[in-house]
Design a protein that fits this description.
There is one protein chain. This protein is of the alpha+beta class and 115 residues long. The chain has a domain at 30-109: GMP Synthetase, Chain A, domain 3 (2-Layer Sandwich). It contains 3 helices and 3 strands. The protein has helices spanning 8-11, 28-45, 75-93, and strands spanning 55-59, 62-70, 97-104. Helix 2 (28-45) packs antiparallel against helix 3 (75-93). The chain is flat, with a radius of gyration of 16 Å. The protein starts with 7 loop residues before the first helix and ends in an 11-residue tail after the last strand.
Length: 115
């Protein structure tokens, strides 16, 4: 969000590279659908807790999901949701899924730089 629209392609293009089609991979459309599914599942499971975008990272056969959430639920519920999410997504996507979440007290604690 810190770049003007005409500079995004020059400075942030590496964020949108699809690495699933390197070396003759045949999964670019499946990867896009899986990413949409993951984001919708996370928004539904972690309802009104995310204060940032959901980041999906793929490394070899592991999917890492990152984001910033609010501290509005107890630690016990948060640990349950982490295990629940990792287990279901691992089963559905047939590969290990790891959540990498950070918490903030309030949405105003997340700093965005707007131009």
């Amino acid at each position: 969000m810190a770049n003007p629209p005409h500079m995004i392609a020059h400075r942030k293009s590496w964020n949108s590279w699809n690495t699933s089609n390197l070396d003759g991979g045949l999964r670019p459309s499946e990867t896009a659908i899986e990413d949409v599914f993951i984001r919708k599942f996370m928004i539904g499971t972690w309802h009104a807790l995310f204060v940032s975008e959901i980041i999906v990272k793929r490394q070899h056969n592991i999917i890492r999901i990152g984001g910033i959430i609010r501290r509005s639920i107890s630690a016990r519920k948060m640990y349950f949701l982490i295990g629940y999410t990792e287990e279901l997504l691992s089963f559905w996507l047939q590969c290990p899924v790891k959540l990498e979440l950070q918490t903030v007290q309030d949405k105003r604690d997340v700093i965005f730089k707007y131009i």
